[in-house]
Design a protein that fits this description.
The structure holds two protein chains of two kinds. Chain A is 58% helix and 10% strand. Chain A has helices at residues 2-7, 25-28, 32-40, 57-75, 82-93, 97-110, 113-127, 132-139, 147-156; strands spanning 10-15, 20-24, 49-52, 162-163. Chain A has a three-stranded mixed sheet. Chain B is elongated. Chain B has helices at 2-12, 16-23, 30-40, 58-65, 70-76, 81-96, 154-162, 180-184; strands at 101-105, 112-117, 123-127, 138-142, 145-148, 177-179. Chain B folds into two domains: 2-96, no CATH class; 101-184, no CATH class. The chains are: A mainly alpha, B alpha+beta. Strand 4 (162-163) of chain A pairs antiparallel with strand 3 (123-127) of chain B, so a sheet runs across the interface.
Chain lengths: 167, 186
């Protein structure tokens, strides 16, 4: 009985769209915002529901999947190994741009360092060696400069550094 | 009213655009802000949430930009207005976060000058203004500054700065450091 009681603590998280998630404690503690919630409310009951008003269910499910895998990797001593890279690559491959944006905003709000590092690195890789037009098209960003602004920006760049590889 | 403002802040986060709106004293719902922005610019009248990457919070753009080189960071500032706002505000800290660049000037092709980043192995090239084609005065680029040696012939030096009225428009004594943003092209 006592063994069962100690086995796994479950943390309850409630998303903006009202869904309740039951998450294993080590996974939930990856979220800095959840961790500090319990640090600040030490006497919080075990069945306290932590409200996450800025996160909806879909990105949270994705985040839990990621953190769960990484908690296991660390437990198995696989951190930093090819296995992790493979998982990360697969994980991101399935995500649309829209999902990626939701994930990055949620990971930022929940303050999950490892995941945020991974996601921002992914975005950076999509900006590297790309033209402005490509970036706009890829991220679905509208060119909202006026022609005058565009001209001013272009002038500023007349003497700009160029990447040598571009020739 | 203050509470409403805070609520909006929490909901829409510190995205560049909303940050600007809030700073300008704009308090209201997200929709109102968008309408206000839209009326400021004809192109934005039919602002849609589909182009949503432009409201990525500055704190995230900052983390992302740490992995970018100077050329890529520059391009970030050309994508859209809110990214440009970020680009302008973080330009200096971006520049100073980079290690000094080694200058390599070729004797044959002196229209261009090459800059080498030892830390990343990245090489940049830059068109040179004709005043410094012979490259007598340049020592290197460090922490955002191009280090120059004051040449004996001051007229020549004056010419160099005349080429950049936007950067050098006062009658102050000629500095030994030219603003580096000039040389990075940022």
């Amino acid at each position: 009985m006592s063994k069962l009681g100690q086995a796994k603590r479950i943390i309850f998280l409630k998303t903006a769209d009202g869904q309740l998630f039951e998450v294993d404690e080590p996974v939930a503690m990856e979220f800095e915002i959840v961790k500090s919630f319990f640090d600040e409310n030490e006497d919080a009951a075990d069945d306290t529901v932590v409200p996450l008003p800025n996160v909806s269910a879909e990105p949270l499910a994705g985040i839990i999947e990621f953190c769960k895998a990484h908690v296991e990797f660390r437990a198995n001593g696989a951190a930093g190994k090819d296995e992790v890279k493979k998982f990360n690559a697969e994980y991101i491959k399935e995500k649309s741009n829209e999902q990626l944006k939701e994930l990055i905003l949620a990971a930022n709000y929940l303050n999950i360092k490892e995941m945020l590092d991974f996601l921002t690195e992914t975005i950076a890789n999509r900006l590297k060696n790309k033209s402005v037009e490509y970036v706009r098209a890829f991220f679905g960003i509208e060119n909202d400069f006026t022609p005058q602004e565009e001209e001013a920006v272009r002038k500023e760049y007349e003497w700009a550094f160029e990447g040598v590889d571009e020739d | 009213m203050g509470e409403v403002g805070q609520f909006c802040w929490g909901q829409v986060g510190s995205s560049a655009v909303d940050y600007a709106a809030a700073r300008d004293g704009g308090v209201g719902t997200l929709l109102e802000r968008e309408n206000n922005r839209g009326s400021n610019q004809a192109r934005r009248l039919h602002y849609k949430r589909s182009s949503y990457w432009d409201d990525l919070p500055q704190e995230l753009l900052e983390i992302i930009s740490k992995s970018l080189n100077i050329v890529e960071y520059r391009n970030l500032g050309r994508v859209c207005r809110s990214w440009r706002l970020f680009y302008s505000e973080f330009k200096q800290s971006f520049l100073t976060s980079h290690s000094p660049l080694v200058v390599h000037a070729s004797a044959q092709v002196n229209k261009y000058c090459y800059f080498f980043d030892i830390a990343t192995g990245m090489e940049y090239k830059r068109k040179l203004p004709r005043y410094i084609w012979d490259f007598k005065f340049c020592l290197g680029v460090s922490s955002g500054y191009l280090n120059l040696v004051l040449p004996p012939d001051r007229r020549c030096f004056k010419g160099l700065f005349m080429g950049y009225k936007s950067f050098y428009r006062t009658s102050n004594p000629i500095p030994l450091h030219a603003p580096a943003s000039l040389y990075y092209g940022l």
